[in-house]
Amino acid sequence: MSGKPVLWLPRRVSDATVARARQDYDVMLNEADTPGTADEIVAMSANVDAMMPCHSEHFSASVVARLDPRLKIIANHSVGMDHCDIPALKARDIVVTNTPDVLSDATAELAMLLMLGAARRAVEGDRLVRTGAWDSWGPSFMVGKQVTGARIGIVGMGRVGRAFAAKARGFDMEIHYYNRSRLAPEQEQGAIYHDTIESLLPVSDFLSLHCPATPETLDLMNSQRFGLLPDGAVLVNSARGALVDETALLEAVESGKLAAAGLDCFKTEPGGNPAFTEHEAIFMLPHIGSATTRTRDAMGFRALDNLDAFFAGQTPRDAF
Ligand code: DGY
Fold this sequence. Notes:
The protein is α/β, with parallel strands linked by helices. The protein has two domains: about 5-100 and about 295-310, NAD(P)-binding Rossmann-like Domain (Rossmann fold); about 105-285, Rossmann fold (3-Layer(aba) Sandwich), CATH 3.40.50. The chain contains twelve helices and twelve strands. Strands 8-7-6-9-10-11-12 form a seven-stranded parallel sheet. (2R)-2,3-dihydroxypropanoic acid binds near residues 79, 80 and 103.
């Protein structure tokens, strides 16, 4: 390859990321910052050596089959990989990387916000004050569910799950978790392991999801599993919308089985689920778990580290 490798940034990433990328790559930007469509991805693959997409660009098997052989590496600006058909990319000898670690704290922090906001009725409270409808106060007014000292069930004790557990310890929560395998004691730090989700749910006053979206975790929380939670539990999802059967969630909120839910992820994104808007017990944010200035820089830099390693002839640290 003569000259700098050509890199496509389909979405607007941080200024620091673009500035660093320009030092080593011929950078092509998508000024419109619209999600790359299948046809755009395929067309662009003939013009670039590398791409740095987000979870908004989908590399399905049919897209991958149409990619030009010029494209050598997809250095994702995301930890989630459910938008990439990894076996199909590997079969085309295209290297794929993600950005683990660097967004764990930001995402865990947002999960705490979702848990607290759902438990303490943030949507309703904000609406009352904001609209001028707050006209009384009493001991029975806006009573919520206390987080401190409650039992938290964590599904998925990877990096984000462990970062969330660390923050939950600050609230003296009793930590239970389900993971495919039990953690070593130094990582567990007293958390109580459950070898099935069915055993975790009945002790989860609060339940927070931190596992990837895979065919196995699709609709992991369905009506049968909502039924296993303690009455008045609170669900938190900062992972992926695919993990929750949204009809079952709605029924659980409407029946009072769930006191509340805090959601940053939805089956349909962008947009969310219009049926949820009827319920102030559902506290919602628009998939912004990793959206802090520091973390966006760190994600961009981690993706660039992976690209740099690849173009230096090494195996990138986060290669699949
Ligand atoms: C991730 O990195 O997977 C976040 O969901 C943002 O894309």
